Amino acid sequence: MNPTEDQIYVIIFSTLFLGGLMSTFVVAMVFIHRQRQAQNKQKLDQIKLEHEKTLLNIENEIQQETLTHIGRELHDNIGQLLSLAKLNFGSIKEHKREEGKEILNLVIKEVRGLSKQLNLDWVESISINEFIAQQLARIESTGFCQTTLHADVELDDLPKDQKLVLIRVIQESLNNAIKHASPEKIEIRIMENKREKQILITDNGKGFDSSQKSTGSGMFNLKKRMETVGGEFNLTSAVGKGTEIKLILPN
Amino acid sequence: MDNRLIEAFFTAYPLTSISLYLIMIIGTVCFFRLSKDERKNIHYWLPFLILSFTFCYENLGNYTNYNYEFKKSVNEYLGNFKYPKFNLWLYNVATRQIGTVLYLLLIKSWTKASKKKYINWMIIVFIVTVCLLQFSGVEPIYLSQPIIFALGANMILVAVAFYFIDLITDPFYLAKKPLKLVSFWLMTSILFSITLSYISSVTLMYLYEVNPILGQGLQQIQIVMKIISLGVLTLVIASPFLPRLFDKELSYESY
């Protein structure tokens, strides 16, 4: 074999080698793609499962909260009204019996209202603005603190999962404010811009050092829940300066 | 019609000429049957531009072989008095320079925003280097330009690698079958065509001297790969009409 022939063989083998290398590269890419596709699918299934689990937990918690509220209503309101009605019916005076009838009608109305809350259908029919207004009215009726709602936009076309999460997060944020902050005023603002919807919950209560890591899982859960529907939960607070919670949902 | 004209445009290189005419006709028909919005999409107009550009310079190449005086005068204008029969100046500018930039732009249109900036830089570096090498006389326009070709080919290979990285990392691509993506076939054809052209152009002059048959064979491979690439470009343009063959692709224009 002379040097020229050698060089020709080198060229032929180089061509075959490069062709083979490129084929191997493309085939390897397809295989890696398939492997990653399977991993990605598994990950997506897991996220979906987690999302469903979170929603189920939220539904349970809302139901639990509703049951507690109904229990409280039965004891504090309906129980009292029924006792009063019983007293009035026991009276010999006609106008007292009439009053008893009116009280009974009021009880029937209250029970109907409560029964509607037993299943989660109300979540579908209520808008976030209405829900917030109800919650604030409830807080104000207890005389605990003053409340204000400023809504620049009506949040009535949200998907059910976003609505459920928002309802639960707002409920929990208000509960936390009442339990831990002892505020004189709670203010909620609803805003929207091109990119996102925002709900701002502020109180002028005790506040806390939000830069320190919380030992409880409450805030972490709220953050995580907002993230499951693609939103954000931002909290800022300082000792003596109240707390501000910003809930963000992308448009 | 003049026999020399027929020979230059049809029979001298029948494989290239006839295939190119067929591909150009199919590509043009498919492109003008696309909707107005699709025609404005870079994924369709850029392949069509490359196809039309190839058609133009290949025919100009054929014309230079027919009109020797024209070829000679251009060579003289460029300072080439030694090889008046060469039309390398045309292929250097069309394939190794403008062609490389067009292919880089094409690959860029299929990659994510994070990688687009690297391709932009590659294009700038390539253009500056080409100008420096050409105007400084290191690689005259009328002779073979191995450095420019090697630089362009390597940049295209790196850009194709960016696409493959997106293919195995991007959630959109991970939800699709790669074999049903027209972009996958386009990148694969570019990859093979560039790699095989690389070895062919490096060894061509040597092989023509010592083993012309093998040299011709290797050049045939290069021609076939070029035709396949142009065929795949036509397939890209025709892909909206082939929904059973190809999945709808993601447009990174909005990124």
Automatic annotation (TrEMBL), chain A:
Its EC number is 2.7.13.3. It is an enzyme of class 2 (transferase). Its main location: cytoplasm. The keyword Kinase applies. GO terms for molecular function: 4 iron, 4 sulfur cluster binding; metal ion binding; phosphorelay sensor kinase activity; protein dimerization activity. One of its GO terms (cellular component) is membrane. This is Oxygen sensor histidine kinase NreB. It comes from Algoriphagus chordae.
UniProtKB/TrEMBL annotation, chain B:
The chain crosses the membrane at residues 12-32, 44-66, 86-106, 118-135, 147-169, 181-208, 220-242. Keywords: Membrane, Transmembrane, Transmembrane helix. The keyword Membrane applies. This is Uncharacterized protein. It comes from Algoriphagus chordae.
